[in-house]
Amino acid sequence: MHVGLIWLGAAVLLAAGESVGGELFLLMLAGGALGGSAAAFLGAPVWGQALAFALVSIILVVGVRPLVRRRMLSALPEHDTNTAALTGRGGTVVEAVGPGGGLVEIGGDTWTARPLLDGDTFAAGEKVLVHQIEGATAIVVRGV
Predict the structure, then answer these.
(1) Which domains does the chain have, with CATH numbers?
(2) What is the pLDDT of residues 4-59, one digit of tens each?
(3) Is 62 exposed, middle or buried (0-12, 13-18, 19+ CB in 10 A)?
């Protein structure tokens, strides 16, 4: 069996392994294995094939991988998570909300709440909007 085919097999296995991790590291090593395979098919000795593998892998890992990762990550939309995702959402007053507090239901969960503006009160059943979350308390304003 030609040594170049072994390098090709290694490239395929490394590329397949990349599908598990997704960090692009194994894919860069697969590119290095393709370099080793090319060197083998061009008649390079084993040490030359290993050198081609190492050089191509280093160039890909150090030079290409950061650029590709940055490009891939910048294409992902940013989504608010945890309490930040609740800002701007609507809710329903469960227990009257006033300066002393109250309860609202937001997205199926019940939260302690207080009004944003001093003097505002909300009766049970009223619609409110979440202005912000402070700790475990929703700061709400009158909804539409």
Answers:
(1) 3-75 (no CATH), 82-142 (2.40.50.140)
(2) 999 999 999 999 999 888 889 999 999 999 999 999 999 999 999 999 999 999 99
(3) exposed
